[in-house]
Write a structure and sequence with these properties.
This protein is α+β, with helices and mostly antiparallel strands. Helices cover 54% and strands 22% of the residues. It is built from 13 helices and 18 strands. The protein has helices at 8-75, 78-83, 85-101, 125-141, 187-196, 265-315, 330-389, 391-408, 418-436, 461-472, 506-516, 526-539, 567-570, and strands at residues 107-112, 117-120, 149-158, 162-173, 176-186, 202-206, 211-214, 235-239, 242-251, 256-263, 415-417, 440-445, 453-456, 480-489, 492-499, 544-550, 554-562, 564-565. The strands form four sheets. It has a five-stranded antiparallel β-sheet, with helices on both faces. A five-stranded antiparallel β-sheet has the order 7-6-10-9-8. Strand 4 and strand 5 form a beta hairpin. The longest helix is centred in the N-terminal third of the chain and has 68 residues, at 8-75. It is rod-shaped.
Length: 571
């Protein structure tokens, strides 16, 4: 995937924003978060302390009454209590001693087997009737209770005003139920004790969620039960637009639940207002920092973009560009160094071009000097052969050779026209025809529209010479046909020399192709390498020689170069 580009100006702007806006907002967030966490922690701690403190006090008190009730159910005899005054006094003394030790929160009741009152420490007749009816109703409702305890931690309402926790046990005379004893603990007395201990916001319910103690003043569902939202819940919750932190602790073998309720509405509202103010401040700061960062980035990056623009011009070949920076800082030094560097590059480039031209000219001249002796040697060998057998033909060969030599030694111009090169190749092939006779057939296709194209002198002859030299191979008696033509391929001129000779073996063909890519000739085939190298040096990449050959079918050599016309001819 292509990497997305960014600009230096944007990077500076984003950097300023990150280093200014982010730390500020993070600092405010951390502060608000710290205050929020500290506040919630303090609320949780206070809530936990009240819940545990009240649970410990209330659970200990109820357990004390349960232990006393268990003792009485095992030791108290209703017959003796009724018949023996000393026994009655002794038992009541112990009972009043226990009630006084526990701040007279509970009242003691003694009933016979028919739930008739035998004794009560309470002087309220309504409470007496209420207790008798409750005991009678529970004994009729369930006969499968434990041997000694009728019910435990039941909560009842008296005329809609006061709830009480009733703790009663069965009394037995042998295997016969003789009566009931127990305690009634009014909830208002618990609340008084809780107020003395500075415990607020406490709810106490039985396992059926009936409320015994309600220090919160609310959360009643109208049926003396705690509202469903508070049942078996812990943590922060929202109710009717207010926020509460709730902690529930079960005591007395899960028979009683203590709920500590802390109103956090004001604190939550404070946090919400703080977050709203933070958002407002963040928006204002973001706008201000974005504007300031953009202005600063624009000012600080103008010089950088000026330098970038200068580098782009250099990249496109303009070496005359100059930087005029007066910033009295490091950028001014960069501008001066840039100008000095371009001056040095222009000087070195000029010198390099001059040396390259001289080197190219020297290499081309050296390659041309390799053609002439090689060609002359082969031609003279042919003439020597013809003088013995065909003097007249030898004479015509000498005339053609003299014309060729006159063409080849014209050093005034390094380039010739395509027409001249084709004429030169025709003269050369005429000389070769005198040597091979009918065994050599050739054809030169001349396109008049292309004959004025300029090309290096003496560049076709080595290719034609190779076609004759290697086209026959060992089969000297066979007929060899050579076809020369020029064509235009896009913007390039391509001169094709084809023969139907024996072809080039694949290994040798691969070797010749690889050799064309070297700066130095690494093979014994000088002619074709020199032609390729001359074209490459004169015209650059894309110009040169391309070879195709199949064994037994022939060879095809393509000379590729740009189309350059003589300006005088064009005019």
């Amino acid at each position: 995937m292509k990497e997305k580009k960014t600009s230096f100006k944007n990077e500076i702007r984003e950097s300023l924003i990150h280093h200014a806006l982010v730390p500020c907002i993070l600092s405010i967030l951390i502060l608000v978060s710290a205050i929020s966490v500290a506040g919630i922690f303090l609320v949780m701690q206070q809530n936990r302390r009240e819940c545990e403190s009240f649970s410990s006090w209330f659970g200990g008190l109820i357990e004390a009454y349960c232990e006393e009730g268990e003792r009485l159910s095992e030791n108290l005899s209703i017959r003796e209590f009724q018949e023996t005054s000393s026994y009655r006094i002794e038992q009541l003394s112990d009972i009043y001693r226990f009630l006084n030790a526990n701040d007279r929160i509970g009242e003691f009741y003694l009933l016979d087997a028919d739930c008739n009152r035998l004794f009560s420490s309470n002087r309220d007749p309504m409470m007496d009737d209420y207790v008798q009816n409750c005991i009678r109703w529970n004994t009729n409702r369930d006969f499968t209770e434990a041997r000694h305890m009728i019910f435990n931690y039941e909560i009842y309402d008296i005329e809609g005003n006061t709830s009480s926790c009733l703790l009663f046990w069965k009394l037995w005379q042998g295997e016969t139920l003789s009566g009931y004893c127990g305690f009634a603990l009014p909830s208002d007395r618990f609340e008084t004790m809780a107020m003395q201990q500075e415990i607020s916001s406490i709810l106490v319910t039985n396992r059926f969620d009936r409320i015994l103690i309600n220090r919160t003043g609310g959360f009643d569902d109208g049926m003396k039960k705690v509202i469903p939202q508070f049942r078996n819940r812990n943590g922060l919750l929202s109710l009717s637009g207010r926020w509460y932190f709730l902690r529930t602790q079960q005591i007395l073998k899960d028979e009683v639940k203590v709920l500590a309720v802390s109103d956090c509405t004001e604190f939550v509202h404070l946090i919400a207002i703080s977050l709203l103010l933070l958002a407002l401040v963040a928006v204002v700061m973001t706008v201000m920092i974005f504007v300031s960062a953009g202005s600063i980035a624009e000012k600080e990056t103008d010089i950088v973009y000026e330098l970038v623009e200068a580098l782009k011009q250099v990249e496109h070949g303009n070496l005359d560009v100059r930087l005029d920076i007066h910033s009295n800082d490091e950028f001014e030094g960069i501008g001066q160094s840039f100008n000095m560097m371009l001056g040095s590059i222009r000087h070195l480039l000029s010198r390099h071009q001059e040396l390259a031209r001289e080197n190219t000219l020297a290499m081309v001249q050296a390659m041309e000097s390799q053609f002439n002796p090689h060609f002359l040697f082969n031609t003279l060998e042919s003439i020597r052969y013809m003088i013995r057998f065909e003097p007249q033909s030898a004479e015509r060969m000498i005339v053609n050779l003299s014309r060729l030599l006159r063409y080849s030694i014209q050093r005034g111009e390094e380039l010739a026209s395509l027409g001249e090169e084709l004429e030169f190749s025709d003269k050369y092939l005429q000389i070769m025809y005198y040597r091979y006779g009918e065994r050599l057939q050739y054809q030169i296709d001349r396109d008049k529209s292309l004959e004025d194209i300029r090309m290096p002198r003496m560049i076709l002859q080595p290719i034609v010479e190779n076609s004759i030299k290697y086209g026959y191979g060992d089969q000297k008696e066979e007929v060899l046909s050579i076809f020369i033509h020029a064509e235009v391929n896009e913007t390039n001129l391509e001169i094709v020399v084809e023969d139907d000779g024996i072809g080039i073996p694949p290994d040798l063909l691969m070797e010749l192709r690889e050799n064309l890519g070297h700066r130095q000739n690494h093979s014994g085939h000088i002619g074709i390498y020199n032609v390729h190298r001359r074209l490459y040096l004169l015209y650059g990449k894309g110009s040169g020689v391309e070879m195709e050959s199949r064994v037994g079918e022939g060879t095809r050599v393509i000379l590729r170069m740009p189309m350059i016309y003589d300006e005088k001819t064009q005019g």
